[in-house]
């Protein structure tokens, strides 16, 4: 069993108030005796941690603050998400990374895979061997065995036993979460949508950092209720004429909110997110009957990320969302040096052309230096709709 | 009352203004943008009013270009891509493709009846822009007019760097190796055109094609572009005002 970290980092005193509060909040969880697992990717089956009564948190960083520190070890022409996440690990500036007793990585993209090797020198790390195919028997079997290995690692590291009943219970709880968040973002199928795309993103993103399941689900329920009531009372935060945009591509949140802002400042509204912050992880429910670990494995393997080849599930979801949300245009955000999304953008462009849906690809990083260029591109795109 | 529309296209290098009376160009003005897009735009505006002898109250002003956000006296702000499409269609009716080489970015726009169908812009870098050309000319100790003359003989040497910073040192080496300024100028233009071609490759390029932007009257560059694209490339005397005209048409 591993020793759980409960002390604050040495650099704690130098932090600003907000960051200090973030650390103190996680310390409180740790002091209550709960273990923390950090993960980077939507493929990571959170049910396993939930079944072990652990707190899990996303470690994908969304700010350029620690990139200079990361670039001491990593090449500069690497995806900002990878650099930033690694940078937070080496600087002890992220409370979640710092307090994570176990960090779970996965073999998705090349940049992350090699970064994890370096991260393993600083953190207690477990790597999930994710296949790049979702349909062969071998791929499914590999993924299932990887989840068994993860379950065993969690049991060993935290000195717990995870039963099938624990897993089934976790599946049910996660399904409630998925259903509620889906219900929330589907409010934007209305015309005009009851919330801006920025608010939708902030709710979706923020929900990843709420650690008490009951509190989290209550909050989402009340958010849905408030939004509906305001709409019924006649509140219209978005104009009926605003062109409706779907965002696809790399995960979003934090500094990349800039992409949503430039689109909405140009007079359009973002109604849906076909990415890991949005529909990719909420769209489907995990099967509740039968062997829980098989169900979890089957559920997660079907996520349509560009690291899969071929990747039909992304296009099934994208096409369906475009219809369901009455989308007028699609904007794809690719992070600099994200090869899989950048290459797949050609397929997305062709796919949407056949459907006669205008498409714009925006490449960006975690800096704010490109706001002017982004707003010109997004502005021109909205004007042409 | 007759409709008077002013379009101001405030780019990174030059601020262009056009005054349209009943959709006809009645006045034009261009000034270097300098450090204050707002003040320069105001000066351009006032000069247009003087030229046309018109009072402020009668006009509608539309701003475009990267400086548009700072032009507080504009009634509307529209991106330069939409404006270029409209303006180009005004200058060359039924135009299908616009190649705009601007000070800070280059773009290739596919249009249909003045409406943007798709577009490509260069990334955040000076390669393939007027700024790249200007910096390179400066390195050879010539201004843009002299640079234009260097292109007249159609000489060329190969310049492998597209990056403005690397090209700068490459030019120094070429000069030291005894290459003529004419040859290097040709190489610089080739480099700009190559970058523009990379953008054009991602857009459906179809005749007629109009070249716009501050470098549109560089005949030497137009020829190279024409060879590479494989279609005739048109230029209008008002090419550099395409964005401003489009803005005025949106008033």
TrEMBL record, chain A:
Pfam families reported in the protein's UniProt record: HGD-D
Gene3D superfamilies linked: 1.20.1270.370, 3.40.50.11890, 3.40.50.11900
GO molecular function, one term: iron-sulfur cluster binding
Keywords: Iron, Iron-sulfur, Metal-binding
Protein's name according to its UniProt entry: 2-hydroxyglutaryl-CoA dehydratase
Cofactor(s) needed by this chain: [4Fe-4S] cluster
InterPro entries xrefs: FldB/FldC_alpha/beta, YjiM-like
Family of this protein: Belongs to the FldB/FldC dehydratase alpha/beta subunit family.
TrEMBL record, chain B:
Cofactor: [4Fe-4S] cluster
Keywords noted in UniProt: Iron, Iron-sulfur, Metal-binding
Signal peptide: none
Domain of life: Bacteria
Record carries keyword Iron-sulfur: yes
Molecular-function GO term, any one: metal ion binding
Sequence ranges assigned to domain ATPase BadF/BadG/BcrA/BcrD type in this UniProt record: 6-251
Keyword field contains Iron-sulfur: yes
InterPro entries according to UniProt: ATPase_BadF, ATPase_NBD, CoA_E_activase_dom, Dehydratase_Activator_Redct
PANTHER family according to UniProt: BIFUNCTIONAL PROTEIN [INCLUDES 2-HYDROXYACYL-COA DEHYDRATASE (N-TER) AND ITS ACTIVATOR DOMAIN (C_TERM) (PTHR32329:SF2), BIFUNCTIONAL PROTEIN [INCLUDES 2-HYDROXYACYL-COA DEHYDRATASE (N-TER) AND ITS ACTIVATOR DOMAIN (C_TERM)-RELATED (PTHR32329)
Protein name: CoA activase
Species whose genome carries this gene: Lacrimispora algidixylanolytica
């Amino acid at each position: 069993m591993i020793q759980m970290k409960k002390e604050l980092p040495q650099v704690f005193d130098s932090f600003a108030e907000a960051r200090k509060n973030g650390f103190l909040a996680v310390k409180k969880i740790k002091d209550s005796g709960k273990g923390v697992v950090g993960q980077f990717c939507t493929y990571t089956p959170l049910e396993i941690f939930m079944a072990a009564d652990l707190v899990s948190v996303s470690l994908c960083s969304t700010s350029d603050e620690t990139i200079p520190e990361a670039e001491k070890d990593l090449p500069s022409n690497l995806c900002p998400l990878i650099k930033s996440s690694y940078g937070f690990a080496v600087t002890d500036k992220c409370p979640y990374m710092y307090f994570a007793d176990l960090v779970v990585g996965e073999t998705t993209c090349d940049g992350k895979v090699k970064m994890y090797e370096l991260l393993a020198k600083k953190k207690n790390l477990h790597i999930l061997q994710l296949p790049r195919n979702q349909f062969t028997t071998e791929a499914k079997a590999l993924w299932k065995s990887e989840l068994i290995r993860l379950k065993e690692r969690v049991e060993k590291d935290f000195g717990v036993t995870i039963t099938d009943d624990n897993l089934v219970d976790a599946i049910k709880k996660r399904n409630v979460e998925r259903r509620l968040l889906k219900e929330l973002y589907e409010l934007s199928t209305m015309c005009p949508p009851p919330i801006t795309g920025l608010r939708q993103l902030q709710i979706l993103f923020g929900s990843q950092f709420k650690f008490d399941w009951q509190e989290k689900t209550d909050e989402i329920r009340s958010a849905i209720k408030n939004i509906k009531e305001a709409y019924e009372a006649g509140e219209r935060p978005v104009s009926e004429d605003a062109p409706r945009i779907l965002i696809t591509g790399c995960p979003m949140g934090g500094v990349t909110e800039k992409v949503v802002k430039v689109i909405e400042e140009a007079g359009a509204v973002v109604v849906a997110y076909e990415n890991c912050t949005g529909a990719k992880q909420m769209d489907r429910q995990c099967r509740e009957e039968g062997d829980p670990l098989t169900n979890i494995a089957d559920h997660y393997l079907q996520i349509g990320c560009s690291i899969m080849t071929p990747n039909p599930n992304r296009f099934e979801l994208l096409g369906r969302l475009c219809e369901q949300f009455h989308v007028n245009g699609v904007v794809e955000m690719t992070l600099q040096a994200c090869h899989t999304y950048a290459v797949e953008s050609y397929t997305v462009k062709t796919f949407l052309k056949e459907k006669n849906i205008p498409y714009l690809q925006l490449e960006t990083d975690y800096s704010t230096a490109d706001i002017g260029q982004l707003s010109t591109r997004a502005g021109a795109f909205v004007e042409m709709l | 009352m007759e409709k008077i529309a002013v379009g101001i296209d405030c780019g990174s290098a030059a601020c262009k203004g056009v005054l349209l009376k009943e959709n006809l160009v009645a006045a034009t003005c261009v000034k270097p943008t300098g450090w204050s897009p707002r003040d320069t735009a105001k000066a351009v505006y006032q000069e247009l009013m003087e030229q046309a002898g018109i009072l402020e109250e009668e006009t509608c002003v539309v701003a475009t270009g990267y400086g548009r956000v700072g032009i507080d006296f504009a009634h509307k702000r529209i991106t330069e891509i939409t404006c270029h499409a409209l303006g180009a269609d005004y200058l060359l009716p039924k135009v299908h493709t616009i190649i705009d080489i601007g000070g800070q970015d280059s773009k290739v726009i596919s249009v249909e009846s003045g409406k943007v169908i798709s577009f490509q812009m260069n990334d955040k870098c000076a390669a393939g822009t007027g700024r790249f050309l200007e910096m390179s000319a400066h390195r050879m100790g010539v201004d843009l007019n002299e640079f234009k003359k260097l292109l007249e003989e159609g000489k060329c040497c190969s310049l492998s760097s597209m990056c403005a910073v690397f090209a700068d040192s490459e030019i120094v080496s070429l000069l030291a190796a005894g290459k003529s300024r004419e040859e290097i100028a040709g190489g610089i233009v080739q480099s700009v055109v190559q970058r523009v071609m990379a953008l054009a490759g991602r857009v459906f390029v179809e005749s007629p094609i109009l070249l716009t932007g501050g470098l549109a009257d560089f005949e030497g560059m137009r020829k190279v572009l024409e060879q590479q694209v494989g279609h005739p490339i048109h230029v209008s005397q008002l090419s550099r005002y395409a964005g401003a005209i489009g803005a005025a048409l949106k008033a």
